[in-house]
Amino acid sequence: MPVINAFHIVQSARLLRLYRPTLKGHFTCRLGSSKAESFLCGSNANFLEAQYVDWTKKGAVDSARGHLLAKTDPLNLTIAAHWMTKAQNLELDDKGLEFKFVARELGTVLSDKHMDMEFELTDRTSIGGEETKLPLREIKRRLEKAYCGPIGVEYMHVHDIDGIQFIRERMETPGVMDMSVEHKKIIMRRLTKAVFIEKYFATKWPAEKRFGLEGGESLIVMLEEIVDTSTKLGVESIVMAMPHRGRLNVLVNVCRKQLTDIFAHFRPMEPKEVGSGDIKYHLGTHIHRFIRRTNRYIKVSMSCNPSHLEVVTPVVVGKARAEQHWTGDKNGDKVVTIFAFA
């Protein structure tokens, strides 16, 4: 373990000497919070132990710096990845910071001389679109655009091969993220509504328990897109269920429950009798919404949810099955269920 620590200390010291003027302000701002944190906590301790075991068996540890290429900090408040990539162009004693492409099939490291060589694309990737082979330079560019940008996706743990391929196609296919300016404005408007309703709740009732959606407001955008797409596919009813977190926001922005009804639940009211009444984030609603983007109506309902959250799952499935039965939906094309988790 001392060998590993010494290696990383030396590398870190070199970077600090190279970029000391730039990083001085950064470490000054983050010094207070970093002291309160321990690197030997949770999964970090397990990771370090696994690294040590790997080092004792194989005599080498992966440099594992690929994550630094991802755009995880759009405000540039931490050490940016370009500082790390710049380091490979400096005259260092060793090549610990050099980024390499390794072709397992060829058993060699790919360099600049291979960038214009064309490689066959496997069926497991969708970066080629209609093309079956691409130059290495283009493969690198498309993979970086898909996996090193501000959007991250974790799906390799999924056991269903079709599910993995479904997600991969929607991450790698060229142009899959492109959308019109009008569509971007709709997303921005929905996201703004989700953010400001949470701010209003927090300002108006700061001491009330409400299970806010702060940090997960993109859930509203996702659900709205599902509703819009469902109407295009001919869906007539959506039965939803979700836990407490973000429930009020979904009721307002997706299920379109009246704000006056939501605000009324924040008032302390005496129950009419023992055992009557319910908490504001337990209640549900239903509405027939008119979707302007498709000029169609769709029924959206949120099921009431007790404190025992797992109980609602079979209830929602049963409600959807009943609607499919009475509407003659034998193929399950008109009634769907959504289980939303923020």
From TrEMBL:
It comes from the Eukaryota. InterPro entries: 2oxoglutarate_DH_E1 (IPR011603), THDP-binding (IPR029061). Belongs to the alpha-ketoglutarate dehydrogenase family. The keyword Transmembrane does not apply. This is Dehydrogenase E1 component domain-containing protein. Keywords: Oxidoreductase, Thiamine pyrophosphate. Its cofactor is thiamine diphosphate. It comes from Iphiclides podalirius. PANTHER family: 2-OXOADIPATE DEHYDROGENASE COMPLEX COMPONENT E1, 2-OXOGLUTARATE DEHYDROGENASE.
